[in-house]
Amino acid sequence: MTGAERHTGNGVTDGLERHAGNGMTDGLERLWTPHRMTYVSGEDRPEGGYDKPDGCPFCLAPRLPAEESLVVARGERVFAVLNLYPYNPGHLLVCPYRHVPDYTDLDLAETAELAAFTQTAMRVVRRVSNAHGFNLGMNQGGVAGAGIAEHLHQHVVPRWGGDANFMPVIGQTKVLPQLLADTRNLFIRAWPN
């Protein structure tokens, strides 16, 4: 424990540090989540990795039977699937069917459909769960945080006022008020045909 860690008043630190390593405050708050290192390092990857479509969960998801799949909607070139490890309830991924790693690998038709599916996903999530906002993004490459860098995917993460809390960090718990299968069924019913 360093003197720069903030104390909660009962002798326990809250995991936040505010120093630049030289004892000087740098104004940044840091949340240490070492339990995520397994995910970042790829230790939980399948034996063959994600490089080839036969080991890629995004290539496998559309082929799963409906009762096992988290796929919400299918297009001609892309599909929407619930994230198995969501940051927030209703966290969707929009993926091309084609196993490509980089946004620049998409052709114009894939790019257009990915954008349209992202817009539709936002509308559906708002309709079903009244999301106040969204985080949208793609992590391009492992160094940028992509857990499955070999298959492009667009994150659509719903946000609500007050949804960020210390439960995952302090309690090692993510509160999700609904089963993924139930969320999937709501989204499927709300997705326009």
Could you characterize the architecture of this molecule?
The chain contains 5 helices and 8 strands. It has helices spanning 37-41, 57-60, 108-129, 167-170, 180-190, and strands spanning 5-7, 13-17, 30-31, 71-74, 78-82, 92-96, 133-137, 154-159. The strands form 2 sheets. It has a 5-stranded antiparallel β-sheet. Strands 1-2-3 form a 3-stranded antiparallel β-sheet, with no helix packed on it. The longest helix is centred in the middle third of the chain and has 22 residues, at 108-129. The radius of gyration is 19 Å and the shape is globular. Residues 1-19 have low confidence and may be disordered.
Give a topology summary.
Elements: E1 5-7, E2 13-17, E3 30-31, H1 37-41, H2 57-60, E4 71-74, E5 78-82, E6 92-96, H3 108-129, E7 133-137, E8 154-159, H4 167-170, H5 180-190
Summarize this, please?
Helices cover 24% and strands 18% of the residues. The chain is an alpha+beta fold.
Separation, N- and C-terminal Cα atoms: 56 Å
Classification by helices and strands: alpha+beta
Rounded radius of gyration (Å): 19 Å
Q: What's the β-strand tally?
A: 8
Spatial order of the strands forming the largest sheet: 4-5-6-8-7
Helices and strands, in order, run as EEEHHEEEHEEHH
Task: Give the amount of beta strand, in percent.
Answer: 15-25%
Helix content: 10-25%
Q: Catalogue the unreliable spans.
A: 1-19
Helix tally equals 5
The overall average pLDDT, rounded, is 80
Shape: globular
Outline the biggest β-sheet. 5 strands, antiparallel
